[in-house]
Amino acid sequence: MAITPTRRSVLQIAAAGTAVAALPVGVRELAHPPAASAAEAPGTESVVTSVCEMCTVRCPILVRVRDGKVIRIEGNPKEKSTQGAICARGNAGISLLYDKDRVRTPLIRVGERGEGKFRKASWDEAYKYIADRLKAIRPEELAVGRRPSASDAFLLTFAKAFGTPNIFSHESSCPLGRNVAMEVTLGTSGAAIDYSKVDYLVSFGRNHMETLAVPQAQGIIAGLARGARLVYLDPRRTPTSTAATTWLQPLPGTDLAFVLAMLQVVIAEKLYDQDFVKQYTLGFDQLAGAVGEYTPEWAATKTGIPATTIRDVARDFGAARPRAVADFGWFSSTYLNDFQLRRAILALNALVGNLEVPGGIFFIKGLKGYGTELGDWKKPAFPAVTAERVDGAGVPGKYPLTPVKDGLCQVLPESVLTGKPYALKAYIAHRFDPLAAIPDQPRMIEAFKKLDLLVSVDVYMSDTGAYADVILPECTYLERTDPVMEASGLAPKIRLRQQVVPPQGDAKPSWQIYQGLAKAAGLGAYFAYNDIDEIVAAQLVPFKLSTAELAKAGQWTPPDAKPTYLRKTDPRAPVKLNTPSGKIELFSAELAKLGFDPVPRYTAPPVPPKGTFQMIQGKCAVHTNSATQNIPVLHELRPSNELWIHPVPAGRLGVKDGDGVVVRVGKLEQHGVAKVTADILEGTVFTYHGWGRTSPGLTRVRGAGIGLNALMPVITDPISGSLVMRETFVEVVKS
Amino acid sequence: MSTATKTGVRHQYALVVDTNKCIGCEACSVACRVENEVPAGHWRSRIVPPTSSGGSKVPMKWSCMHCADAPCVQVCPTKATYRRSDGIVVIDAARCVGCKYCIVACPYGARYFDEKAGLPDKCDLCVDRLDAGLAPACVQTCVGRALALADLADPSDEAAARIRSGEAKPLHPELGTKPSVYYVVGK
Fold it and tell me: Which residue is closest to B41 within chain A, CA to CA?
């Protein structure tokens, strides 16, 4: 047998030289890493500080480079909230970077929409193709949609320069309801939980250990290790159930009943912080009046959780104040009662006075509060926009509470197909895949087919990309420098994502893509910079900080800024909130005026019709939404999803573990595989989000698993504008 | 038994897995995979997920146990697999003939066969990193800080103390291989 030398034997040979000895012991500062690393001696390693983009959390990282190639990504140990850790996705960045499935050159469609047939094009040709079609439409007929990112500025500048009000984020398919509830109640969605110091945490389906944000998970694990308690509610057993001190299985959509009963107990038994309530909240009496009827006995009939358990949790929660926190969650596009659930959770926190104390909830202490803000590149004033938004975001009588930076990403088909209030004609989807993210996929496809122009800017040919006229290949986070990003917490902080290696193929960063597109569209004046380094330098001017200094550690906090809790030493310290009353609004006059419940009241979720299941979804720890399923290493870890179904209904349906199943809503169906398990309630089925993909460009994951967006209708919460994605019921049959 | 290194420090390595802090996120699996350039389709370390019906109730990191009485060492016809004096079981690729006896002999199923190289492979506790003074990739990246490299030769080592006190226990000690990976189970 021929023996090929392994990497180990190569390393043994090289051990006396540089390869092993040069492993990272510090951080090298590299302003232009590709050029610098190319000049290094072969085998020499360098380390570049940067920021991960495998999910939205953006953990600081150290990237190891050898001979011009990324060989490893580690967490930056200087960041206290992650201690050098990164998750499986962060570790797999290299697998995305070098994936052969990436789009490496601009593509122009040659086949029918959705066929995925494209020809290669030059950037100039692609820009001209798009610009020519944009010239034929009115400004407001262009819509742009994106996952918010550090590169947002370029797409947003292009949209505003073009003059459209129709700017969307993905938020209405994720945390929008929570955000709006926080805006109404606290005056801002910029608040966070001091996880590592919480003594008693109640989580309503916020699956910290699996829908992973490393700093949050690490904080909670550290808390549990010193004796903190975690009460976790989820109809499904998750890694958070395993980590929790108490796991409760409520019937889906009834968390609000649980919280209302906790409020009732905390108020009736006077477990709340009376001084805090008096000084910092508005509407306690109305809240107390509203929740009086919601006893644990009542909630038990809704949630299926014993009244004694609910009462015990409420008492323990009250006893642990102020280091007791009810988690306000993240994903909240669940039920129509979700907005009031978040309001009720925020009220529960207010009652225990955990605002701005260690182990409580704190407001993000951003740069602005310290009188310093990031600079920007110079650009002319944007044209005035007179057209109304197609989605009614921020518009009285429609969705006045929905932030206009987010809007309702689900309205595109309504506008395109009905022409109401007018028809959008062009759509630029930036690292955003509406087909994978938004319910009623068939209607979205119909709308895509009717558009004059659909552009996908992405690293892969996404499902949406397969319908696009043009795909513009954005490079990954390891191949570009982004504008400086704010990463503030208890103290202000900025981070720099810097380019580590040259882009693969002809992929480009956003700062180049939208500059090129703007020039072709006659809007070049808004992008009058030479390169990203010039933008970063302009951003740092107010801090008298050089790019090299920031790049050295990868992050920076103003030297005089310390972690701050406003009420740590003085529990009566003034805290001015950005609500109409300046207080935490347990009662909201604004909601009353709009015709919504001003204090939380119970509305029950719909009950599954006979023969159907409640369908719930979640995220797994090795994938991010629908963005990572095709990445080789992560695909190998979890190549598909399964339908979790309890043994009792599975037995009734004759479905055994591993059997094929059809999941059906009316005439729509998806095919998958059953996982028969007692880890889910009997009347509920579960599957992980992000599968059921259709793009021919996603060669590994295409056709695998169940995609619920193909089955669910669009249901919109009238208060926040958020999607409602848990009120669809499915039939399950053996296939 | 321990080994003298370049710096004169003596080591006896072991790995402690605190399952109370492990969330089964597989960060360690991918860190290992990338660090050691493990070929597609293979893993030196994986997480065995918990189940409600039989099996483990907590996630279990699963990789080479670096046994003191290692069957893989005993069956190797060319002495390619051996245990270093610091406790790490390694494979000398230059001596290995790819007979796969070791793969069959390992009661923990911790080895795989690298078809391209024609050789077996497994966790070596990132010996290159250890020799460079760095923690193994899995330990370094662990989200829950559940993994710790223990040095039983160091009386002040906290992770080693958890082994000595019996708080951290080997998996399937009845197999008699004297593993060097120890698990803390139960709160």
Answer: A636
